[in-house]
Amino acid sequence: MSASPENELVTRRRLLAVTGGLVGAVAVGGLTGPAWADDRRPGAGRRRWLPGDHHVHSEFSVGYDNSTTPPKPIIGGDAIYPLSVNATHAQQFGLAWIVSTDHGGPLHSKLDAEQRYPSLLEARRSVPRVLQFYGMELDTPAADHSSLIIPKVSTERDILFQLESRFSKRDPFPADPSFDTEQKMLEALRVMRQLPHKPLLFANHPARSATGLGVYGQDTPAEFRNWNDTAPEIAHGFEGAPGHQAGSLRKDGSIDPDGERGGYGNYPTMGGFDQMTARLGGLWDSLLGEGRRWWITSTSDSHRHYSEGGSDFWPGEYSKTYVHAGWDYADILDGLRSGRIFVVIGDLIDQLDLTVSRAGQAQGQAEGNTVSVGETLTLRGRDRDAEVEVRFRVPRTANAKGERPQVKRVDIVTGRVTGPAKDRSSDTNPTTKVEARYGAGQWRRDGDEIVVRHTLRDIDGPMYVRVRGTNTDELEPQPDPHGSDPWADLWFYSNPVFIER
């Protein structure tokens, strides 16, 4: 590989790709044979919670030699690992699926089609237990980055080439300022909307460029509303918990007192989550309060492992996006599109079922409709109450740090759905509140699951319900200071259930 890193590192990475060895990672007992792997034939198997990561970089996130015309790509110049190494680590840490999301630069679309795609096909062959989507981290016109996920179809390479070459703002050479406009982004979404096999898009690290709480940078509330209005089946959400969470760790895993979680150098993450998600009644709640089906995810943004001088965990080592789906490309993509998702950092839990039902007439038993995350419950006639049930499970094995963190509290969060915002830049929902908090003395065990039940009473209009939990004593997630330990401050979040009346 021309202009790649030192020969010794290249040789070691190639060896890893063949042997499946680990670089600076902890092999965790039980993770190489997760329950979902009982039936690994694509298209087969019942729906279950499948962990994954939609934001993973490889050596094809390149650097550039700007002394040539056009600039010459430097393989491994930004992220350093072959795709098969990423997939091997994803398997080691229990993931069922990942998305290859390299970002671009001048004429990167050609590199993707000619070099990365064949490498992906080889990674699929060498690590078949991990479903590997083709995609990219789009250099989003007039915004920051976005994960663009391409359906696994025979034309996937052509689909991405056309989208990247036409709409990635850094792809043209010479540079073209017209690619870096919101008009260009909306054009891209309209083109995606017309495709027979529709991709999916999540904004990455949306408030990383924010300079304060609610003082946004490259990504703004109005942009997200415009994207979702233009292509609601494609522009579906943002990273709730960004990657680069090992930014506060040294190579040996000790704390760097000057390090930052997530690379959020202006305004920090909050409990490891982006302020757009973590702030109660903030932007996410504002979008949900309009009735938008806007989902959150959690990713590694893996470029280089912290043990090799980077700021990243391996895919699945710290952050997981769980999708309720069969072990099948199409169903996983459908689950992401439909919001059958919960997210967690630090393996605080490995199962979360949030269901809402019409309240029953006797002994509080539920009857009739029961819906789960991403779905809508309709109350009719005299129905005014709804029963919320939360079931979660603490993993049976230690996390990648060798610890078994315990959930201290679960919060049930509600908000009203009041329709389109008059102010497109609005980032608050004043109706959002913590409906109830439940600690260890207030829930019950059912086998290896922990169960919380709560009744919502006198529902008089449309609303949504979501759940979060933590191993901390914080009533609300607080800004993460420099040098904070990512393993000590853990949260999980469900996506919402909607209720109509």
Automatic annotation (TrEMBL):
It comes from Nonomuraea angiospora. It comes from the Bacteria. Residues 249-260 have a biased composition (Basic and acidic residues). Transmembrane segments: none annotated. Residues 239-260 are annotated as: Disordered. Coiled coil: none annotated. This is Phosphoesterase. The lineage of its organism: Bacteria, Bacillati, Actinomycetota, Actinomycetes, Streptosporangiales. InterPro entries: Pol/histidinol_Pase-like (IPR016195), TAT_signal (IPR006311).
